Amino acid sequence: MLWKPALVAGVFLFFSTIIGPAVPKILHIEIVRVINNRRVFIQKCCSGTPGDCNSTTTPFKQISLLTTKRRAIISTRIVSSSSSKKTIVETTTPPPTTVEATTTTVSTTSTTITTPTNTPPCLPHTCVTQLSLLDASNYINILNYDFSGNWWTAGSNVRTSDYFIWCMNQPVMNVSSDIKFLPGQPDNWQNNEHCMEMVVGTDTPPDNIPMNDVPCDTSYQTRYVCETQAAGCTFPECPTVPCLPDASKLSNSQSWQSNSDGVFRSACGRQYFISKVGKNWNDAQTECCKYGKQLLSVESFQELSCLAAMNKVQLKDTTNFYWTSGTNNGFGCEFTYGFCGSRTLLYQNFTNWQSAMPDNPLTERCLDMKMAIDPTQMTFNDQKCTDIRNFICEGSQPDCSPTCPSKSTCVKQDNFFNSKGELLDAFNYGRYASGTDKTYLFYAQAKVSWAEAFNFCCTLGMDLLSIATDQEMQDIFNLNNNNILLEYNSNFWTSGTQLNCNFHFNYCSTGTTFFLNDTKWNTDQPDNINELQWCVYSHFGTAASYSQSAAFIDDAPCSDLNNFICQTPKMCTSVPCYDYNCTVDPTKAAQVTAMSAAGWYGASVWTSGTDVGVGCLNKFGWCPSGILTTSELRWGAGEPNGPYSENCLNLEVYRGDSSATTFNDMDCSKSIRFLCEQPLEI
């Protein structure tokens, strides 16, 4: 059923001065308004002839409009006034408010309540209640019903011909002077109009409900309105569902471990469990309890905004509907919505209803929510509580932290280093580039898993890459893009991970947190598809200029095979040299001493120079001191010219021409003569 805007406007005119909540549910009598502590609703008050019903437990009676500030919901049954009066329950005792919503039976003891004989102003009548009428199917949703027209009231002047009284009030009361009649009425035409009807919609408020006198007997029939005593509905009825926490699911919640039934997400400082399986409304609440949580309560638009922001990055769900703990359960609570999880009413100025909803407050008494990435599009709808929906649980849980490899497992390979702690044979492990305050090792010889990359960097005394800022991302791009020795177009592992803590990212090398809104993420990433993409890689390619397509980060399964980048704060200030245990050979020492400066011929000889060191490419130094060469070093034409292949320094000697003697880089594995030196003894 849908709302009818024009019709609602008409009803509003009638109820424009009325404000009031509703009451808890009793039996199956629904669609209720409570005004001035009276419950008014569409109901065939009683039915049939005296004695044909079996219960008098339902305290409803025909409406008495003491003032225009009354609400009513209407029966479609057309009866005469006398017939209607014969089916009225004569009692003003408020009904019990603790009967469960599932109650479907009432006492079968036959009881008849008769109007006391000491009430002569009104016609005598007998009222019984018919069980078959105590069902919501007999009531009409006023929002979908044309309220205009004629309706019986309890007004009568059968015994008081010069004025009208309300027969259903105890004690009987006169119709007040603010109740207006149609022009020229009452006229008691043919001395046969002693009962009072209201005629709705003949004018504008407050004159749109005038009265008219009409015959009381079966010669005139129309619809009627019933009312009863009632307290207000302060909050809908929430079901009592079994709450049995499940140890395994509690553990999932505490460790933020998603499972096949759903995933855990963080937003607004709370933990949410978003189910992948459907349940009815009651079962969804039971399932939330197993995780130590409650079915979702949306207490503010801010919370909707948090959920939308989380969904935009983490779930990207724009189609599914999820149960919330929202309901209007309870007799008289049809238009009072509250969240059972938080015991809060629908927040003030709530506007997130789905179009034309709620549309059936009688039978669709539970609220679901459509997920969206825009909080204004996260709309609510009333549904049958027995429908199957996914659901969202929420609760408090200390935030998780991603799991990083233990520092104790990081073992530096001592035999890779000299006694100064400098890495030897550094060029065996990849190619280097130095930025402002870091040196990066690009390992592209093979592709390995994230854990292997992390451990490999550790063995070299380095850390797997952590990209602290956007500027660092751009710097690494420029180092790769502008260096002919690099120019990679590849994925490289970083130390970033969200392992065991969905969408909470840390760089394990530095402990630095980075976030979902980090501008380095690739488009629509991260997404952790199927809860498998726990590790973060970087991509660097070549391009005319820095852009997201050429440099970005993304999440992927940790078992994927990628290249990787190690980093170290060390810059090249000296070259690493091997530790030599030098034993002097006296014979060879004597030969050196006897050498004459004369008789040198042109030759290529080794020196101790090398550039094999972290970040030392083309920065040569002398061993064993490691001191870097100066700018006065005379290089041969076009030298050095063999980076990563010619990393040792030789001297090209030309006899008798010192100006022609130059240095050259050469493959360290070559076999040539060498030149030794020692300080002179003076």
From TrEMBL:
InterPro entries (alphabetical): C-type_lectin-like (IPR001304), C-type_lectin-like/link_sf (IPR016186), CTDL_fold (IPR016187), DC-SIGN_domain-containing (IPR051004)
Segments forming domain C-type lectin: 267-394, 435-567, 605-677
SUPFAM superfamilies, alphabetized: C-type lectin-like
Superkingdom to which the source organism belongs: Eukaryota
Pfam family of the protein (one): Lectin_C
Coiled coil: none
Protein name per the record: C-type lectin domain-containing protein
Classification of source organism: Eukaryota, Metazoa, Ecdysozoa, Arthropoda, Hexapoda
